[in-house]
Amino acid sequence: MKILLLGKNGQIGWELQRSLEPLGQLIALDRQIVDGLCGDLSNLVALRATIRQIKPDVIVNAAAYTAVDRAESEADLAFIVNAQASQVLAEEAVALNAWLVHYSSDYVFSGVGSVPWLETDAVGPVNQYGASKLAGEQAIVLSNCKHLIFRTSWVYGARGNNFAKTMLRLAKERDTLNVIADQIGAPTGADLIADVTALAIRQALQQPELSGVYHLVASGEVSWHGYATHVIAFARANGETLAVTSVNAIDTTAYPTPAQRPLNSRLNSQKLCAKFSLHLPDWQSGVTRMLREVLNK
Ligand code: NDP
Questions:
Q1: pLDDT at 42 over 90
Q2: Cα 13 to ligand 1 centre (Å)
Q3: CA–CA separation, 41 vs 50, rounded Å?
Q4: Whose C-alpha lies nearest to ligand 1, atom 23?
Q5: What pLDDT was estimated at residue 158?
Q6: Which CATH superfamily is domain 2-161+188-219+266-281 in?
Q7: 107 has catalytic annotation
Q8: Average pLDDT score over residue span 194-209
Q9: Where do the structural domains in the chain lie, given as residue ranges?
């Protein structure tokens, strides 16, 4: 089996390089052109030609325009990468009878209420990034290609930058931190997402009726403030020297950003767990593991 992975160096893409390898021959690309193969999602012509040349059985798209605030002023590029490229991938998947695995976001929802979103809930993005991710999903679903679309939230990996690492750095530099407490979600490890992806692909190859949209997040819920408090408490308990003495809870309105953020980022992953017989660990276990790696504890 031939698998084409796009976005190999992103948080999820990096972990997919590991988890997809045992499934078959893996061709992993980032946006650079290598051996005439192009994984740049803003170059739709070259992207299409690359898929036709490789003829994968499974396309896994971990590449995306993920700069949420910048997307407000670069909406055209966000839509090319997140929506038009998804359409190209879907069309080529149909032509090859290949599977398309794709990632989306809780940002397709409006963020109102406090109930975890179901796959069947009405969408209503509040910013350009969310709108571009939704357009990408819709292009894939409408194409009728065999697809697995995993909507996730608050992704972190041990590699690269993430919220927890930023909190650790700031906790060493400052005595007071102000962190948003009215946005609620579940920090979800790129490693968990990549492992679930590999398991789901294996099963979907045997059961094409599993094609669909799935929510995929760690269990439980927390605010950014609660997440920061957890990270700082872990670091302190494990001997890190921190300057911070108070972590204040603030509202989203006290921290204006170019892109509006949904307050309710909760996703209900029951459909995924039921259809694929999976268990999703609580968010603390993955975050603690990542912190142990980052802090070498
Ligand atoms: P990252 O930002 O870590 O990785 C995205 C990757 O896409 C980067 O390697 C980036 O490359 C690449 N990329 C950007 N533009 C292009 C392009 N034009 N052509 C090719 N590659 C490009 O994102 P994550 O791993 O966190 O996200 C993976 C998926 O999960 C995305 O679909 C995202 O929308 C979704 N998601 C992420 C969440 C999060 O909290 N991070 C939450 C919910 C969903 P480069 O570094 O060169 O720019």
A1: yes
A2: 8
A3: 11
A4: 10
A5: 86
A6: NAD(P)-binding Rossmann-like Domain (3.40.50.720)
A7: no
A8: 98
A9: 2-161+188-219+266-281
